[in-house]
Amino acid sequence: MRIEPRDVLCLGLGSPCSSRDARAQLAFLSRLCALSNIDSANVSVYDPVFTDADRRLFQVLGMQCPSDIKQVKHSLDGPTILYMPHCDLKLYEIVIRANWTYGRLCDIVFLANCFSDYIDNNPASKLEEQSPCLRRLAPLVESWPLPTSGAFPTAFNNLSVQYVKREPLSLEGDTFWHLVEMS
């Protein structure tokens, strides 16, 4: 894998002002950006539970914090870390679908729930109906689980660093890429 992200989209963080886990996840995100030389101005965070106090915190940190989901750009331009701690299946599907091209998918580093767990824990018919993109993509993803945190056991459980393997994805035919409109 050789992706050098310059942007971060963080969805589903929770309220750092009211949640210990969200504070730990935000601290992790801040440190990750510092180690990756990603400017905080290139970090966009959104969660419908954010309070005014949360938004002020993000402003102080220099991060972008749209006030409405309609302002969140789900289709990504260029190498991006998609940080989605403990989001639901539907949100993963929305974001993957919005980036359903070879180039975009290969430019994303997912820091998210392990996709293979969704495949293992849901009936194939449900996945095909509700999450066809995730169902198709999961077998083509390399995944490294984050180590367990003794201090924050629920903040990082089931999170993995994941990326799409370029070669297998490049071999996929038209039926892989064809999607039916979601209702």
Task: Identify the notable features of this structure and list them briefly.
183 residues; SRR1-like; Rossmann fold; 9 helices; alpha/beta
How many distinct folded domains? 1
- Gap between N and C termini: 35 Å
Low-confidence segments: none
Radius of gyration: 16 Å
CATH architecture descriptor name:
3-Layer(aba) Sandwich
Beta fraction of the residues?
15-25%
Specify the helix fraction band.
25-40%
Tell me, briefly, the overall form: globular
Total count of helical runs of at least 4 residues: 9
Write the H/E string, N to C.
EHEHEHHEHHHEEHH
- The CATH class turns out to be Alpha Beta
Mean pLDDT: 93
Biggest sheet details:
6 strands, mixed
Read across the widest sheet, the strand sequence of neighbours is: 2-1-3-4-6-5
